[in-house]
Specification:
4-stranded antiparallel sheet, ABC_transporter-like_CS, 12 strands, 339 residues, 8-stranded mixed sheet, alpha/beta, globular, binds magnesium ion, AAA+_ATPase, binds adenosine-5'-diphosphate, ATP-binding, Rossmann fold, cell membrane
């Protein structure tokens, strides 16, 4: 089985003492079977909230208000809108069709079951296997995610492991589910470069075999270049640039994307490495008090008063499949400010 996911006009607001605060503003994207879409942006831009909303893992209404659709369509063409499902239907879909690797693994591992049992359970959820066979498969997965002495680790509990080991266990559980759709929220951030490369390789293999669609959230442009087909840049809860990895990394047009890429040394662009997001002066705006106009204008070197601080820019297509949100992009291209 394989499936694609189409998110349309997804918005998320959190209730506060002074009313609902919008954190994600009408974002849309889709991912085909076998495709990896990377989601990048500074801390606080709404990446985790987006993925948690799709998985329906946020506090229910009225604490949280979710609008829009997240439709998973299997290869027989049957669509299911995750946003509209109840908890029972969701449990089935989550274990089966769509899995998530969290930024913080401790909260999502079960403290009272051994690592081996949790992986074996994930395998047996979608495949009829004997306990012994599932255990053998769990052992092999622990080995594949780079856990030393995997046979010993099978019988340990999550709290007995270090943060990096727990992260690998999380990844093993998600892979054991063999989901159609995988959402990975900064899954390799805590891991060293060698293990990271190993896990990216593992994800790619599984993707090739199963046609898995992946939403990959990361801070690392090296990882984007290595694993993704397309990339989406998020700022203050909006997609501000989206396109193929080639287009966006080699000719970013939205000033925010350019800022993120600016301090990444050229060699790292080309040859990957540990290319972290660059730092841009200033801060991501408080969702409760967003600036008027373009949310990025207070930090933007190309800010033009009367334009950028007035109208919020629409997402426009600048060439096939490459979209961005900037009122001045044409001018900036003419000025040579943007390649
Ligand atoms: N449960 C919550 N209640 C209220 N605000 C939240 C909650 N979770 C996240 N936020 C806010 O939503 C914004 C986006 O957060 P998040 O999605 O975690 O960012 P990212 O993953 O891109 O670093 C932040 O301003 C954060 O403070
Ligand atoms: Mg996050």
């Amino acid at each position: 089985m394989s499936a694609n996911i189409t998110v349309s006009d997804l918005s998320v607001s959190f209730r506060s003492a002074r009313g609902y605060v919008p954190v994600v503003h009408g974002i849309s994207f889709s991912i085909r079977p076998g495709e990896t879409l990377a989601l990048v942006g500074e801390s606080g831009s709404g990446k985790s909230v987006t993925s948690m909303a799709i998985m329906k893992l946020l506090a229910p209404a009225p604490m949280t208000r979710i609008e829009g659709r997240a439709v998973v369509t299997d290869n027989q063409g049957n669509p299911v809108d995750l946003v509209a499902l109840d908890e029972k239907q969701l449990r089935h879909i989550r274990g089966n069709r769509i899995a998530m690797i969290f930024q913080e693994p401790l909260t999502s591992l079960n403290p009272v079951h051994t690592v081996g049992d949790q992986i074996a359970e994930a395998i047996r959820f979608h495949e009829r296997l004997s306990k012994a066979e599932a255990r053998r498969r769990a052992l092999s997965l622990l080995e594949q995610v780079g856990i030393p002495e995997p046979a010993k680790r099978l019988d340990t509990y999550p709290h007995e492991l270090s943060g990096g080991m727990r992260q690998r266990v999380m990844i093993a559980i998600a892979l054991a589910m063999e989901p159609d759709i995988l959402i990975a929220d900064e899954p390799t951030t805590a891991l060293d470069v060698t293990v990271q490369a190993q896990i990216l390789g593992l994800l790619r293999d599984l993707q090739r075999k199963k046609g898995m669609a992946i939403l990959f959230i990361t801070h690392n442009f090296g990882v984007v270049a290595e694993i993704a087909d397309r990339v989406m840049v998020m700022y203050a809860g909006r997609i501000v640039e989206e396109g193929s990895v080639l287009h966006v990394l080699s000719s970013p047009r939205m000033p925010y994307t350019r800022g993120l890429l600016a301090s990444v040394p050229r060699l790292e662009h080309a040859g990957l490495g540990q290319a972290e997001l660059g730092t841009i002066p200033g801060y991501v705006p408080d969702p409760a008090a967003p600036p008027a106009g373009c949310a990025f204008h207070p930090r933007c070197a190309h800010n033009k008063p009367g334009i950028c601080d007035v109208e919020p820019p629409e997402l426009v297509e600048v060439r096939a499949g490459h979209q961005l949100r900037c009122s001045r992009w044409q001018e900036l291209c003419l000025e040579g400010g943007v390649r």
